[in-house]
Write a structure and sequence with these properties.
single chain; pyridoxal phosphate; PyrdxlP-dep_Trfase_small; Aspartate Aminotransferase, domain 2; pyridoxal phosphate binding; alpha/beta; four-stranded antiparallel beta sheet; PyrdxlP-dep_Trfase; decarboxylase; seven-stranded mixed beta sheet; globular; about 450 residues; about 40% helix
């Protein structure tokens, strides 16, 4: 064994303790750490011919790199619907690396069993029935991609071909209908060979991002055959929800696959005040939920659900002598694009076991309360304009006068040490977006943000 490796193995407990101390210092300092630091990242250096060992690497990281990282685990990082990491999820993620499981095959199957139990807990959390089966993937983009890949195979089934065997060309032109699709949907269609042009926009309700059910039915009538509908449970800018019951009811008269992008909107199910928004989610043929958002587990983690695991396995099956057979209960290697992936389920298992439904409901309701409070503060601040009602956990607002992208970028930059906001465009108006999903965020953070908004507008 290389002497550096042998030394680090012998000193591993002390090195891990030093790592713990650094991590704890970072987390303890989140309250006052600049959300987006002004420190420039270090200049790149050549790969060292000889390593310095773990302790030296840790010291260099702490000195040169760590100060340049932002406070994305903290309570005022409000961009991208980025949750933090609960204490239990952090412990689970550390153990994920320590255990380093290849859990895709039943030949080494404990990880698969833990993942299936965790998926079952998540299914219950979101109000889905047992007909929905799921697996972990890297994020909402991959969850949408898996759901739409299964939809593509379903379209082939309707047309008497297997796209998994014959290729996308055998399917011919397809239509994917949606009111306000996330950008990852078009990306998924591109990767799946159906093409971005397959995405057909459907009119939304006046002043809303939610699809107009009547317009959707008209589009289905024009589709001339089986198609795919992507419904939204929580849009990016205003967290608007399609009427999932109304959309699902259209299946009685039209032949389509219903995929619901519920990347963070699915968490409305945890709150009695907001659960009505996701009534009808169980009627979906496939569902996307992102976990490194409101479940507050580390990047990267998401889950996908579908009623047609048989089609899913047809798409993603991986035939190799060293892998388990497809069987009635397919190994995870047969269900997602990745042959190699870490045991993402462990961090989710830890946070669900540690805090249960009640703990995660508290996170959801506290975040929505904070969003409503910030919305009220924006509405009361001269020079700012709220662009949409605060429906759940996102505040979409702009400058009252001359809201150009350049002025908004400068405004956001002036706040960056206190709060991170992301740019967007809503109804043609350049805007900023504050997304609450971090378990640490409280009303005190909102008051700090509101005060800075008033100072810099």
């Amino acid at each position: 064994m290389h002497p550096r490796l042998a030394h680090d193995l012998a000193e591993l407990p002390d090195a891990l303790e030093a790592t713990r101390l650094l991590a704890t210092a970072v987390l303890d300092g989140l309250e006052e750490r600049p959300v987006v630091p002004s420190v420039r990242p270090p200049e790149p250096v050549p790969l060292p011919a000889e390593g310095a060992g773990l302790r030296a690497a840790l010291a260099e990281f702490a000195e040169r790199w760590e100060p340049a990282f932002g406070a994305s685990p903290g309570p005022r990082y409000l961009g991208f619907v980025t949750g933090g990491t609960t204490p239990a999820a952090l412990a689970g993620d550390w153990l994920t690396a320590a255990l380093d499981q290849n859990s895709n095959s039943s030949l080494d199957g404990t990880g698969q069993h833990l993942e299936r139990q965790t998926v079952g807990w998540l299914r219950e959390l979101f109000g889905l029935g047992t007909a929905h089966e799921g697996a972990f993937v890297s994020g909402a983009t991959m969850s949408n991609t898996v759901g739409l890949a299964i939809a593509r195979e379903w379209l082939g089934e309707r047309r008497g071909v297997s796209v998994a065997e014959a290729g996308a060309a055998a399917l011919g032109p397809v239509r994917v209908l949606s009111g306000s699709p996330h950008s990852s949907v078009a990306k998924a269609l591109s990767m799946l060979g159906m093409g971005r042009g397959a995405l057909v926009p459907v009119a939304t309700l006046p002043g809303r991002e939610a699809v107009d059910p009547a317009a959707l039915e008209e589009a289905l009538e024009r589709a001339d055959g089986p198609c795919v509908v992507v419904a939204n449970a929580g849009t990016v800018n205003t967290v608007d929800f399609d009427d999932l019951r109304a959309v699902a009811a259209l299946k009685e008269r039209h032949d389509f696959w219903l995929h619901v992008d519920a990347a963070f909107g699915a968490f409305a199910a945890l709150s009695p005040r907001h659960a009505h928004l996701v009534v009808g989610l169980d009627a979906a043929d496939s569902v996307c939920v992102d976990l490194h958002k409101w479940l507050n587990v580390p990047y990267d983690s998401a889950v996908q659900f579908t009623r047609r695991r048989d089609l899913q396995a047809r798409v993603f099956q991986n035939a190799a002598a060293y892998l388990g057979p497809l069987g009635a209960t397919p190994d995870l290697v047969h269900l997602t694009p990745e042959n190699s992936r870490r045991l993402r389920a462990l961090a989710a298992w830890f946070t669900l076991r540690a805090y249960g439904r009640d703990g995660h409901r508290d996170i959801v309701e506290r975040c929505t309360d904070c969003a409503h409070a910030l919305g009220e503060a924006v509405d009361a601040t001269p020079g700012l304009r709220l662009l949409a009602p605060v429906r759940l956990n996102v505040v979409c607002f702009t400058l009252a006068e001359d809201p150009t992208p350049e002025r908004l970028a400068a405004f956001a930059e002036s706040l960056a040490d206190e709060v991170f906001l992301t740019p967007t465009v809503y109804a043609g108006v350049p805007a900023l977006r504050a997304a609450f999903s971090n378990w640490r965020t409280t009303g005190a953070d909102v008051r700090r943000i509101a005060a800075r908004l008033g100072e810099h507008v």
